[in-house]
């Protein structure tokens, strides 16, 4: 019993230590953000005169309103299309078992581990030739393609477990393939779809490489890319940079805290399957 | 998992085949849109990367065919080859630390899994997964600077002698960048392993206790083997993160000092967009993609059976 | 149930598919339109911005408020012109320049090294404007560094491809209070005198030099080039920077300079964490009085006059021998117009305005801290003698007398700074590179980059 109690205490201590290490960077950002702009505050020191106005200045300097709007537009472009197309393909490959489905699936699977840096160069010239550089479509279209392997993989994993009898009975009732998909399988797939949606949202929101290469205007980028631009422009003013970073973090953190259960579950399943 | 298995009897097979041919072609309409995006924005660029890698091209003027010369340079030019070596070294930090530490922490937490503290911790240690890597890079470069919190802490502990600008020192820059990666990935690994542990049959542990096994024996002979799949997943995800790292390094060191933290992802970006050596960039990109597949495929294969 | 796909069949299908995809297109770059060399169009009258509303797209460097201040004043005088300004740090601009000029052309852009941009036909040929506005009647040395032969080589002669908004100068800033502490009453006249002051500062527990050398920006190139100018003539260094055939950086006098820098490093004259110090950190440390000397340029004069009034001094790098000629890195703060800019005429008019308008020249001196471009008899604002700006402007005249102006060794090729000087200097700080090897390595990279282009 004594050992058990000691183990429990060690466990608690470890947890607290780990949480402290996790929180530390956020805390440091926050404290530094309150120092007068242009200074180099040493370590963790509470400022004598906290400059709450830094957040307002960063909000204006970063043009946060426009950034939020841009990120939302990009997410709205990427996530629904990816979900619809991924679900349809996953349904066809996993449930309808189309001819040649296995080969197609293998081709998709090969893309699962693709590092984006591998194709960023030709992607740049392709987007340029399409005349889409410096538009949000330059991020949206390639991301749909790049997320397709995972979306298909994820949805196939769901559909492959759906019993065929479900479809057999619907077919007997005269439903065609589209109705079968729309009326029976999509409603049943909602949990898988919403988890996929969360993952795609997060990956889109935090996409950096495509944003900095394909879009120069920070107000047409993702949040992450905008933060890169913000660092490029204000990196010389540490408190302002910290304030801006925190502001840019806030939306994801807020959404995470609201939907945290789903988030954690989705991310865990996501990495298990991916 | 109970599913009618097609092809048991000859008659069933014929019926199945008929059904497939009618469904089959209609089904392609479901696959085509997804495939179109994939082909245009992934497969075509991959093919183009392969093509570019055989040319010398500045991205503007005409190109010259150079065969495999670019690949030759990837493996002989120390600047390019070292970036690959650095990526492999990063695996130690991105993979080994989160997995080993994650196992230890998860095993400890398991005993108090139901407590309030553990529930809060689940949320908190997950935060690094949610924020952009760019933000992690900014926050940590500030923590690791010569006047940062890390040095402040070391000085408090009486270790003032070892303080330094961690990201600006040849000996410590790569490990420091690695620690940022470890910070990001530790939470994910811990929670993954924890989730896996909750599936382990408690009876196994009880039996072991009855046999007089200590916590360590229990850990080695029950916990680790049961988590084979979860560990494999952690390793895959983190190895890919290490090899394809870009965001953190772009923000915190830009590959410096010297080329101490140069990784293939960043090198490709510089080669392609600032030095305009598209061919070299593409050759390195091909090598990187193959390296990732070479690392990920065996582990994927390994977990395949678990994935039905 | 086993769902293994036989790899051979699908693998083959994949290879065929890839082959088809690749075969569908020819050699890269073969079918995209090639930008053509822009030739100077002869203008009948000097262009202007007109009266219709017009928005200029500009791309400036962060931390240099002079460009923005000028645009604000310009809009005040020409209300139909508004500005859409993007800012980045210089390292980012260097990375982005070719891409942005080609595919998202700004009307006015702060430029890094120009010769490769000219080679790729990304910059507008300004000869026509020079003639129309009379820039060719200004002292020729002002625009020399912005002239390029066909294809970008060599630099120093040929057509004009960029303009400066002022003419900056580098040397050594010092903290007057700390100088007093070590008994330094007047700027050292020789290199030995400077060495002496450095040693005294070190003994007094003062950081002798604050400099930046972190990330992608090797700031030790400033003291290195100054040392090169102490030991040898400026001419061969300029030849190297201008990519004249046969030029080399690996010369005996440059080796002496590199060895001298190594001695400074080994003596601990720089901050311990210099490899992690970026430009802004260096500035804040110097302003905070954390170091005696700083190798930097007069673009900071205005800033220093504001942030540490009366406490900062400036002198030119002293020669190795007393009475020797002095030299300094001195270059136009370079701005250019994209070959594909929509409002090139208005941008050129702005550049002319910067050099000739009374108000603009005052902004250039007060905020920019440097000598304005323009005619020799152009308006110069009065500067109080105790201001560091006054010393930097005076130093400019000395350099002109000694004919000692050099471009920056980091500007020799587009990649030489980030890929060669910076890593090599960072290695030297860490004791991983010798002066001999440093110069050899840089020369090797230079040869490859110049030939590869």
Characterize the structure shown.
Chain A: One of its GO terms (biological process) is transmembrane transport. Chain A: Belongs to the binding-protein-dependent transport system permease family. Chain A: It is a multi-pass membrane protein. The complex is a heterotrimer of chains A (274), B (308) and C (453). Chain A contains twelve helices and no strands. Chain A has 274 residues and is mainly α. Chain A has a domain of 187 residues: MetI-like fold, CATH 1.10.3720.10. By secondary structure, chain B is mainly alpha-helical. Chain B has a two-stranded antiparallel sheet. Chain B has two domains: 56 residues, no CATH class; 229 residues, MetI-like fold, CATH 1.10.3720. With 453 residues, chain C is α/β, with parallel strands linked by helices. At the A-B interface, α1, α3, α4, α5 and α6 of A face α1, α3, α4, α5 and α6 of B.
What proportion of the residues of chain B is helical, as a percent range? Answer: over 70%
Shape of chain A: globular
Q: How far apart lie the N and C ends of chain B?
A: 9 Å
Oligomer: heterotrimer
Which structural class fits the helix and strand makeup of chain A? mainly alpha
What is the CATH third-level topology name of the largest domain in chain B? MetI-like fold
Determine the CATH superfamily of the domain at 65-226 and 249-273 in chain A: MetI-like
Low-pLDDT runs of 5+ residues of chain A are none
* Architecture (CATH level 2) name of the domain at 65-226 and 249-273 in chain A: Orthogonal Bundle
Specify Rg of chain B, calculated over alpha carbons: 25 Å
In terms of DSSP E residues, the strand content of chain B is under 5%
Low-confidence stretches of chain B: 1-15
Alpha plus pi helix count of chain A: 12
Instruction: Provide the β-strand percentage band of chain A.
Output: under 5%
Strand order of the largest sheet of chain B: 1-2
Considering residues with a beta carbon less than 8 A from a beta carbon on another chain, report the largest interface and each chain's count. A-B, 103 and 106 residues
């Amino acid at each position: 019993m004594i050992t058990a109690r000691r183990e429990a205490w060690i466990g608690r201590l470890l947890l607290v230590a780990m949480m402290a290490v996790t929180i530390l960077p956020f805390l440091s950002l926050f404290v530094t953000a309150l120092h007068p702009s242009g200074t180099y505050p040493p370590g963790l020191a509470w400022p004598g005169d906290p400059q709450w106005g830094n957040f307002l200045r960063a909000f204006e300097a970063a043009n946060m309103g426009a950034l939020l709007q841009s990120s939302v537009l990009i997410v709205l472009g990427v996530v629904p299309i990816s979900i619809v197309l991924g679900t349809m393909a996953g349904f066809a490959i996993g449930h309808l078992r189309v001819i040649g489905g296995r080969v197609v699936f293998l081709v998709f699977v090969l893309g699962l581990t693709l590092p984006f840096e591998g194709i960023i160069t030709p992607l740049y010239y392709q987007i340029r030739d399409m005349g889409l550089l410096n538009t949000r479509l330059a991020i949206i279209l390639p991301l749909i393609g790049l997320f397709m392997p995972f979306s298909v993989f994820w949805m196939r994993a769901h559909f492959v477990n759906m019993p065929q009898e479900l479809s057999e009975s619907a077919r007997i009732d005269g439903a065609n393939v589209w109705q079968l998909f729309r009326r029976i399988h999509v409603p049943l797939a909602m949990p898988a779809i919403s988890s996929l949606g969360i993952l795609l949202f997060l990956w889109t929101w935090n996409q950096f490489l495509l944003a900095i290469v394909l879009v120069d205007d920070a107000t047409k980028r993702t949040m992450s890319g905008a933060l890169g631009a913000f660092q490029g422009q204000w990196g010389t003013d540490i408190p302002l940079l910290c304030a801006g970073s925190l502001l840019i973090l806030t939306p994801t953190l807020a959404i995470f805290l609201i939907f945290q259960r789903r988030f954690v579950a989705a991310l865990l399943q996501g990495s298990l399957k991916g | 998992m109970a599913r009618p298995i097609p092809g048991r009897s000859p008659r069933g097979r014929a019926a199945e085949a008929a059904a497939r041919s009618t469904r089959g072609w209609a089904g392609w309409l479901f696959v085509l849109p997804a495939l179109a995006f994939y082909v245009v924005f992934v497969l075509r660029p991959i093919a183009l990367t392969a093509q570019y890698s055989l040319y010398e091209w500045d991205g503007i003027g005409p190109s010259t065919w150079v065969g495999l010369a670019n690949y030759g340079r990837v493996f002989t030019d120390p600047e390019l080859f070292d970036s690959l070596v650095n990526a492999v070294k990063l695996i130690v930090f991105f993979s080994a630390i989160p997995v080993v530490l994650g196992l230890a922490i998860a095993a400890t937490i398991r005993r108090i899994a139901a407590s309030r503290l553990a529930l809060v911790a689940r949320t908190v240690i997950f935060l690094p997964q949610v924020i952009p890597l760019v933000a992690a890079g900014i926050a940590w470069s500030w923590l690791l600077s010569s006047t940062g919190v890390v040095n402040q802490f070391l000085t408090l502990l009486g270790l003032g002698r070892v303080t330094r600008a961690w990201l600006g020192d040849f000996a410590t820059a790569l490990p420091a960048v690695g620690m940022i990666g470890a910070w990001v990935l530790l939470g994910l690994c811990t929670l993954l392993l924890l989730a896996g542990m909750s599936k382990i049959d408690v009876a196994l542990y009880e039996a072991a206790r009855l046999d007089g096994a200590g916590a360590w024996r229990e850990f080695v002979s029950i916990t680790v083997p049961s988590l084979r799949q979860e560990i494999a997943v952690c390793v895959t995800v983190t190895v890919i993160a290490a090899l394809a790292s870009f965001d953190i390094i772009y923000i915190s060191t830009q590959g410096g000092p010297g080329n101490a933290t140069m990784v293939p992802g960043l090198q490709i970006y510089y080669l392609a967009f600032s030095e305009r050596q598209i061919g070299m960039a593409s050759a390195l990109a091909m090598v990187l993609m193959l390296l990732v597949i070479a690392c990920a495929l065996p582990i994927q294969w390994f977990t395949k059976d678990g994935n039905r | 149930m086993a769902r293994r796909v036989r790899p051979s069949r699908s693998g083959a299908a994949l290879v065929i598919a890839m082959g088809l995809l690749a075969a569908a297109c020819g050699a890269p770059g073969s079918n995209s339109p090639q930008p053509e060399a822009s030739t100077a169009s002869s203008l009948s009258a000097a262009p202007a911005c007109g009266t219709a509303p017009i928005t200029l797209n500009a791309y400036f460097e962060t931390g240099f408020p002079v460009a923005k201040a000028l645009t604000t004043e310009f809009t005040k005088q020409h209300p139909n012109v508004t500005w859409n300004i993007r800012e980045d740090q210089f390292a980012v601009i260097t990375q982005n320049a070719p891409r942005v000029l080609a595919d998202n052309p700004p009307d006015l852009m702060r430029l890094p090294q120009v010769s490769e941009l000219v080679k790729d036909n990304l910059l507008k040929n300004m000869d026509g404007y020079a003639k129309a506005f009379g820039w060719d009647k200004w002292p020729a040395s002002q625009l020399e560094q912005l002239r390029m032969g066909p294809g970008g080589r060599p630099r120093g002669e040929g057509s004009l491809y960029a303009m400066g908004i002022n003419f900056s100068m580098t040397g050594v800033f010092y903290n007057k209070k700390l100088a007093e502490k070590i008994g330094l009453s007047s700027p050292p006249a020789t290199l030995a005198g400077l060495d002496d002051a450095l040693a005294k500062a070190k003994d007094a527990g003062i950081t002798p030099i604050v400099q930046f050398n972190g990330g992608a920006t090797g700031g030790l190139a400033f003291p290195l080039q100054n040392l090169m100018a102490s030991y040898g003539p400026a001419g061969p260094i300029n030849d190297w920077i201008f990519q004249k055939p046969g030029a080399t950086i690996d010369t005996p006098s440059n080796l002496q300079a590199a060895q001298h820098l190594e001695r400074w490093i080994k003596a601990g004259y720089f901050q311990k964490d210099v490899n992690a110090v970026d430009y802004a950190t260096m500035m804040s440390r110097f302003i905070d009085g954390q170091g005696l000397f700083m190798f930097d340029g007069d673009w900071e004069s205005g800033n220093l006059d504001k942030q540490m009034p009366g406490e900062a001094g400036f002198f030119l790098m002293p020669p190795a021998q007393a009475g020797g000629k002095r030299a300094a890195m001195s270059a136009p703060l370079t701005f250019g117009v994209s070959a594909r800019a929509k409002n090139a005429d208005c941008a050129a008019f702005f550049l002319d305005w910067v050099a000739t308008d009374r108000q603009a020249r005052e902004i250039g001196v007060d905020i920019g801290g440097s000598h304005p471009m323009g005619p020799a008899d152009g308006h110069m604002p009065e500067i109080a003698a105790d201001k560091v700006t006054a010393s930097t402007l005076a130093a400019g005249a000395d350099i002109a007398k000694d004919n000692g102006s050099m471009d920056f060794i980091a500007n020799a090729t587009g990649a030489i700074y980030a890929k060669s000087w910076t890593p090599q200097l960072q290695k030297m700080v860490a004791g991983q590179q010798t002066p001999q090897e440093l110069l050899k390595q840089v020369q090797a990279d230079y040869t490859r980059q110049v030939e590869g282009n």
